[in-house]
Amino acid sequence: MKNAIFVLGEAWGAEEAKARTPFVGSSGYELTRMLDEAGISRADCYLSNVLNLHPIGNDIESLCGGKPDGCLGYPALRPAKYLRKEFAPELERLADELVEIDPNLVLALGNTALWALTGKTVISKLRGATTLSTLTASGFKVLPTYHPAAVLRQWDLRPIVVIDFQKALRESAYSDLRRPFREIYIEPDLKDCHDFFEKFLPKTSLLSVDIETSGRRVTCIGFAPSPRYALVIPFVDKRRLGGNYWATRELECEVWGLVKGVLENPHPPKLFQNGLYDISFLFRSYDIRVAGATDDTMLLHHALQPESKKDLGFLGATYADEGAWKQMRAKKTTKKED
Ligand code: URA
Fold first, then answer.
1. What's the 10 CA to ligand 1 centre distance in angstroms?
2. What's this model's pTM, rounded to 2 decimal places?
3. Is the CB–ligand 1 distance for residue 55 below 6 Å?
4. CA-based, 20 to 30 A from 8: which of 113, 133, 169, 325?
5. 285 CA distance to ligand 1 centroid (A)?
6. What pairing do the DSSP bridges indicate for beta strands 141-145 and 105-109?
């Protein structure tokens, strides 16, 4: 039977080198336990490493050199450290193994696995979101998460890895990347705003609301009556004269009047992410008294996983099927503490 999940680690440790088998030491023990907790049987997975060898002192950097010594076409594996050319055959062996096993999903454990598959390395930013590998001609679906050795060093990563493994189990049922289909209205005029609210508000049982701020000003506000549709109303637009999205003060006041009407109506109930910030900001800066704020993703997640991170990037990677969208933005815009 096909191995739907290909579990990819970094390199052998001492135990693995003795047995010439991946994940038979302490990392492997913890890996098995976490897979089990997520409902995945280790026996159903194919396990391998980027490098079937044991780096001196378990230190991958001992296999690295400067850029001229690095494997052709590969970025740095660690800052300014390139995997040396002599190890390129290991990457070819990995590519052959992937093609032969043809898994639905590759579970990339840690930065080295993520690097070998995609050329990227910041596991803390990319974990939990599926992406496509670039190592072989046809990309395999990859789900990056922390390495079990990192879990053993930093125990609070463990629930995150178990959550990612649960997602891996769901994703392993099919090989393609399935992104949710969304229609997001991003540059509306006043009529678009009216039409959107008229069309969606009567039908929705929960309206998601989120603001972005800069100083004492809301730079934009988003409304999503369902996972499929959203409206983003901007107030700042640096491309326009004066930096304002709306052409006149009167027009902007009219838009705020519309927004105020939606927010001060207890129907539909509203969902925020750290709404305590948004609601108090809207009151202080705009005299808007939000009504019907019944749910909060940050607090709901906190109830489930009190020890884990709670920012939107983390929650999106954990609960949604999007790519790592916080990494898609070319430049940072305004930032709030979610
Ligand atoms: N760490 C790895 O990355 N692979 C193993 O096989 C064992 C420990």
1. 6
2. 0.85
3. no
4. 325
5. 53
6. parallel
CA of 51 to the centre of ligand 1 (A): 9
Question: What are the pLDDT digits (tens) for 114-172?
Answer: 999 999 989 999 999 999 999 988 899 999 999 999 999 999 999 999 999 999 999 99
Domains with residue ranges and CATH for the chain: 5-171 (3.40.470.10), 183-327 (3.30.420.10)
Task: Give the nearest ligand 1 atom to 49 CA.
Answer: 4
CB of residue 213 inside a 6 A radius of ligand 1: no
pLDDT digits (tens, 9 = 90+) for 42-99: 999 999 999 999 999 999 999 999 999 999 999 999 999 999 999 999 999 999 999 9
CA-based nearest residue to 190, from 252, 260, 263: 252
